[in-house]
Design goal:
Elements: E1 2-12, E2 18-28, E3 32-36, H1 43-51, E4 58-63, E5 66-67, E6 78-81, H2 93-103, H3 108-121, H4 137-149, E7 155-159, H5 167-184, E8 187-192, H6 195-201, E9 204-209, E10 212-217, H7 219-224, H8 229-234, E11 239-247, E12 250-253, E13 256-259, E14 270-275, E15 281-283, E16 290-299, E17 304-310, E18 313-319, E19 328-332, E20 339-342, H9 347-359
Parallel strand pairs: 3-8, 3-9, 6-7, 7-8
Antiparallel strand pairs: 1-2, 1-4, 4-5, 9-10, 11-12, 11-14, 12-13, 14-20, 15-19, 16-17, 16-19, 17-18
The chain binds adenosine-5'-triphosphate (ATP).
Adenosine-5'-triphosphate binds next to helix 1.
């Protein structure tokens, strides 16, 4: 069920800078969403508009079908967890978490019970009397979440809230946040510039660049079918090669024609082809679809990152097996591993092409 809708939202700041251009998005209840994009792409501006801390220049914000565009932040059923947690350093854990309820003059017994529940949800049982300064970064983060969920918001907005944590703690908190979201069953909208984080946590991701949504969809869909080169480059490592569509299910790149899974593009049209480094299998030179020579190799703990040259371009390969510098190797990939992108295609155009193609009745059932 749709809980939040942004309808043709734009935002121009007072100095004339246009931070958002025609943002349309639909948020369903009970799911985990990420707003993912590089610094300055407009993520926080979207979150602030949803929260009611900023007004859009044009467009409307809907909550459960009702226009809440001008509604005060305090009257929305949302809560925000900020990057710096914004905890009160002079209050202990209990007082920090209880703060919002006390403000609403909730009876003391109810406050005690709710604080206990909230601390239990974030796995901080027994921490009520600790001072904020006596907590680790991850624990402070969890206090901030407890404080935000105690008001039972319908939507929790999280702004880069893991970015201050070290890598190990960050991974731990990713799992925990996801678990908390599942347990509470409320909608989380999570702002991050870290693509791995967004892929690991989200039901759905909105990829932003330059104040526009580039693509939205499940992590798998966005990773496997990037609609343009920005998304392909931003989400994971990619080999992006210039190519030309020969006909449906056949594309030319690296000097050869290859069977692919894409259709609905005019024959002869210039395209870009994405091959993910982990989809390239290393074989004997004569068994590969292309033959390349190894330039360099880095061991990254769980895989080797190999750079190679051949077929008129440079290749990035992820492999669990190492190779030798200078070695000739074959690269094998399946037709489904080749992702063809039209130059400058937007998400809407991509969807329309897919639909019209599937609509012909000739497309794949998948
Ligand atoms: N009050 C303001 N006045 C003018 N420009 C602003 C204002 N606030 C933000 N901006 C600009 O709007 C753009 C989007 O900012 P926003 O904070 O939404 O980006 P972001 O994607 O969240 O970036 P980051 O990851 O760095 O926080 C940026 O170029 C920023 O400089």
């Amino acid at each position: 069920m749709e809980i939040i809708k942004l309808d043709h939202i734009t935002k121009q700041y007072d100095d004339g800078f246009v931070a958002l251009r025609d943002i349309n998005l639909s948020i369903e209840s009970g799911k985990f969403y990420s707003l993912l994009g590089p610094s300055g792409s407009g993520k926080t501006t979207i979150l602030r508009i949803i929260a009611g801390f900023a007004e859009p220049s044009t467009g409307k914000v809907y909550f459960n079908g009702q226009d809440i565009t001008g509604l005060d932040a305090s009257k929305r059923h949302f809560n925000t967890v900020f990057q710096n947690y914004a905890l009160f350093p002079h209050l202990n854990v209990y007082e920090n978490v209880a703060f919002g309820l006390k403000l609403k003059r909730t009876p003391e017994a109810t406050v005690r019970e709710k604080v206990k529940d909230a601390l239990h949800t974030v796995r901080l049982d027994g921490f009520a009397n600790r001072e904020i300064s006596e907590l680790s970064g991850g624990q402070q983060q969890r206090v901030a979440i407890a404080r935000a969920i105690i008001n039972e918001p319908k939507v929790l907005l999280l702004d880069e809230c893991l970015s201050a944590l070290d890598k190990r703690l960050r991974k731990e908190m990713q799992f925990e946040l996801r678990a908390i979201q599942k347990k509470l069953g409320i909608t989380f909208i999570f702002v991050t510039h870290d693509q791995e984080e967004a892929l690991a946590m989200s039901d759905e991701i909105f990829v932003l660049n330059d104040g526009q949504i580039q693509q939205s969809g499940s992590p798998v869909a966005i990773y496997d079918e990037p609609v343009n080169d920005f998304v392909a480059r931003f989400i994971g490592d990619s080999n992006i090669l210039p190519g030309e569509m020969i006909k449906d299910f056949e594309v030319k790149f690296a000097g050869k024609n290859f069977e692919c899974a894409d259709a609905g593009i005019t024959p002869g049209e210039k395209v870009e082809v994405v091959l993910r480094p982990e989809d390239l299998d290393i074989t004997a030179p004569e068994k590969g679809k292309v033959t390349v020579q190894v330039l360099s190799q880095l061991f990254l703990g769980d895989h080797f990152e190999i750079k190679a040259t051949g077929a008129g371009t440079e290749w990035l390969i992820h492999s669990t097996n190492g190779v030798k510098i200078g070695q000739e190797i074959g690269l094998f990939f399946d037709p489904e591993d080749i992702h063809v992108m039209r130059l400058g295609e937007t998400e809407a155009e991509f969807d329309a092409r897919l639909e019209s193609y599937e609509g012909d009745g000739e497309g794949d059932d998948e």
